[in-house]
Amino acid sequence: MSEYVLMSGNEATAEGGIAGGCRYFFGYPITPQNKIPEYMSRNLPEVGGVYLQAESEVAAINMVYGAASTGARVMTTSSSPGISLMQEGLSYIVGAEVPCVVVNMVRGGPGLGNIGPAQSDYWLATRGAGHGDGRCLVYAPYSVQELHDWTARAFEIAERYRNPVMILADAILAQMIEPCKLQPRGQPPPLDKPWAIGGDSSERPRNIINSLYVNHDEEEAVNRRIQARYDQAARDDLYYSEYGDEDPEILVVAYGICARVCETAVERASEGGVKCRLLRPISLFPFPSEPLAQWAQLAHKALVVELSMGQFVEDVRLAVEGRCPVELLNRTGGNVVTPEDVTQKLFDMAAES
Amino acid sequence: MSKSTHIDTDNMEAIYHKPEAFTETPMRYCPGCTHGLAHRLVAEVIDELDIQHRTICIASVGCSVYAYEYFATDATQAAHGRAPAVATGIKRVRPDNIVFTYQGDGDLAAIGLAEVVHAAARAENFTVLFLNNAVFGMTQGQMAPTTLLGQKTTTTPQGRSIERGGYPLNVCEILATIPGVAYLARETMTSPKRVMHAKRSIRRAFEAQIQGLGFSLVELVSSCPTWWGLKPLEALKHIEEKMLPQYPLKVFVDKVSQASEAVAEGGD
Questions:
Q1: What's B27-263's CATH class?
Q2: Contact B90 A70 (CB under 8 A)
Q3: B72 to chain A: nearest residue by CA?
Q4: pLDDT averaged over every residue in chain B
Q5: Which of A24, A52, A197 sits opposite B74 (nearest CB)?
Q6: Taking 90 as the threshold, does the pLDDT of residue B9 lie above it?
Q7: Domain ranges of chain A
Q8: Alpha-carbon gap: A17 to the closest alpha carbon of chain B (Å)
Q9: pLDDT on residue A39
């Protein structure tokens, strides 16, 4: 399977999971990601895996927790309202220190919202794993190819940090069709993690997967251990890409589908004499604060483009720390910024200075 | 002192001992609570079936949250009500392991009703121990779905009324309608005879799982002297007089016997 194939983001994500060694999928239907469970229900049995449709997202994430406790590569996928329901389970998964992969194809909200594209789960993704001090490690692809590759890669990252990894995309990326070079279907690693439950426990100490620590010092030690892993991820699994002029007047910051739009806008602005550089965080937690700060030092202004009401811009402002003014261009509710919107904004910003 | 008081223990047979499937951890249960007895029956069954090293215990949220500290098996701890979902995830990866959840009535009959019903509907091949003492114990005695009409709890200070709290929920009677259930019984532990009967049902439930017959559950009508405000013996009497009329003891489903009879008859 080394040739390029035309695939939707949903299908490429599902096949990415199988390529990454995932053999267990628990999920619940919700638009706009239903092609993922459908794909898994056809393909996982062919590779000796299990697809199971849960009675709710609440149950699905707890099935993930159980499967992850055995050391198996396991994933679930959903969209915004379903991800809200999974927060409880994610908190337990973080607290019990087991790995898994969760995909969120974000749709418009709040509430039932709509099935249009949005980035309005930025805070939910980067701040949540439910209650408590835990977080998800969050990666934001911006093409069908990247959805495939990052989903495949997510499993080893999750196992490295014994923490859930969230792939954050949206209704456009989920449903758009692009050429994608598929990775070969990898074999899942054996279920021999030293911490995992299951199998024959007669020749080893029994294992307990648990997030209950009534002793406050013990709980604090766990939280610090988990934080140390996030610190390590900030060193070893921090990803971003850059695009555009080396000596920018304006720094453009966007992720996911917005970054795709911004590439065109940055090109057009440069052609029109406004030098711009796009910095696209791929890892949203950990966040690429240092490269952002460096570019903010060089640029006169920064523009953040997002499909939410100023969620992502907060992290950019924290990273920029006042080195340059940061402006926001956003659409929400299922609407999308266009290359024309962004290009015009860049020309306006250049004219103001 | 006469020599007759000397007991030669070296040549005596031990007829009662801690089950191998128990750890050394002392239990935290209140005096007169039947959780300890229920744990012991499960541990004895695990010993008798020789499955300790392939058994996985799933503790829930409630008084039995520490079950993973008492059973000397692999274990995990599930969010409130979610143990059947967690068990599903484990069993689907590890079908050769013996998986059981241990849940109270708040956990299973309130917040976790969807999870247990759907696990039964899918005929998930694991075992549920369901302790029904008609009250939320760990959170200090609030009303549970199984609280009896008229029963005083910390959130039904005038007694449970239909107007405010609705009717008690009979979980076994609901589950008995589901074809995926392989073994289903309601037992109690108010007398040695009843204890032995309860143990038989627990063993049957595990056998159903070992034989791959589907979902198994044993409800144990249990006591909570602390939040019932009764002495331990009064609490057992309360079970007999008040609880059992609402929750009658019964083996609802037993496909283990059917399977054994089919084998005995040489039929298919």
A1: alpha beta
A2: yes
A3: A206
A4: 95
A5: A197
A6: no
A7: 4-236, 240-352
A8: 17
A9: 98
Q: How far is B230 from chain A (nearest CA, A)?
A: 29
Report, at the CATH architecture level, how domain A240-352 is classified: 3-Layer(aba) Sandwich (3.40)
Listing from the earlier edge strand, what are the strands of the sheet with B55-59?
A208-209, B74-77, B55-59, B98-104, B127-132, B215-221, B181-188, B250-254
Residue A187 pLDDT: 87
Query: Please, which residues 221-260 of chain B have a Cβ atom closer than 8 Å to chain A?
Result: none
Using 50, 70 and 90 to split pLDDT, how confident is the model at B1? Answer: very low
Residue A195 three-state SS:
coil
Reply yes or no: is the peptide bond before residue B31 cis, omega within 30 of 0.
Answer: no
The CATH number assigned to the domain with range A4-236 reads: 3.40.50.970
In tens, the pLDDT along A150-165 reads 999 999 999 999 999 9
For residue B232, count other CB atoms closer than 10 A to its CB. Answer: 15
Summarised one tens digit per residue, pLDDT across range A8-52 is: 999 999 999 999 999 999 999 999 999 999 999 999 999 999 999
Supply the pTM of this predicted model: 0.96
Which residues of B fall within a CB distance of 8 Å from A197?
Answer: 56, 74-76, 90
Strands B215-221 and B181-188: parallel
- Encoded amino acid at B100, one letter: F
Query: Do you know the residue count of chain B?
Result: 268
B36-69 pLDDT, tens digit each: 999 999 999 999 999 999 999 999 999 999 999 9
CA closest to A206 among chain B residues: B74
Angle at which helix A87-96 crosses helix A57-69, to 10 degrees, equals: 10
Closest CA to A327 of A351, A353, A298, A303: A303
**A4-236 and A240-352 agree in CATH topology:** yes
